Amino acid sequence: MTSQQVELLAIAAHRDDVELTCGGTLAKAVRTGHRVGIIDLTQGETGTRGDATTRAAEAERATRALGVHVRLNAGLRDAHLQNDEPSRATLIELIRTTRPRVVILPFPVGRHPDHRIASELGRDAWGGGGGGGGGAPRTGRSKSSTPSPTAKIR
Ligand SMILES: [Zn+2]
């Protein structure tokens, strides 16, 4: 396992999204011995609560508090996320760098366009070459008899 490789990877649009939506899950996974990573798609440069530098410092502190092993930033345009070929290529490269077994994506419905697009972009990058094998992503709501990929994280 390389130093960038993780078992569980959370992908989100902005630097505080992961902490607000699944920070507890990530901290618990770390505490139970799993390697965990985060990919922030943007630097939050258009945020109303702090500039990119402030948000980077906050993200660094949050990363340490959660115990997350790897945190990468895709450097895509904040407030202008696109699920286009260049964005997918960037995200696929980062997913391949981290080689996760399980990926947590944003909920696909919401008010902020970046959040919706981050969900779609993550799904397409994961399934389209990042590591998902081209199939539909598995979700925690699956009715499949196959155990959820998060089943080992308690
Ligand atoms: Zn956000």
Give a short synopsis of this structure.
The chain has 154 residues and is of the alpha/beta class.
List keywords for this structure.
154 residues, alpha/beta, disordered C terminus, binds zinc ion
CATH fold-level label? Rossmann fold
CATH class: Alpha Beta
Structure classification: alpha/beta
How would you write the strand order of the largest sheet? Answer: 3-2-1-4
CATH architecture title:
3-Layer(aba) Sandwich
Q: What's the structural domain tally?
A: 1
Helix content: 40-55%
Residue-averaged pLDDT: 87
Beta fraction of the residues?
A: 5-15%
The CATH superfamily label reads LmbE-like
Radius of gyration: 15 Å
Order of helices and strands: EHEHEHEH
Overall 3D geometry? globular
How many angstroms does the end-to-end distance come to? 23 Å
Bound molecules: zinc ion
Notes on the protein architecture:
By secondary structure, the protein is an alpha/beta fold. It has one domain: 3-Layer(aba) Sandwich (Rossmann fold). Helix 3 crosses helix 4. The chain binds zinc ion. Zinc ion binds next to loops.
Q: Strands, helices and their partners?
A:
Layout: E1 8-12, H1 17-31, E2 36-42, H2 52-66, E3 70-76, H3 85-98, E4 102-104, H4 113-130
Bound molecules: zinc ion (ZN).
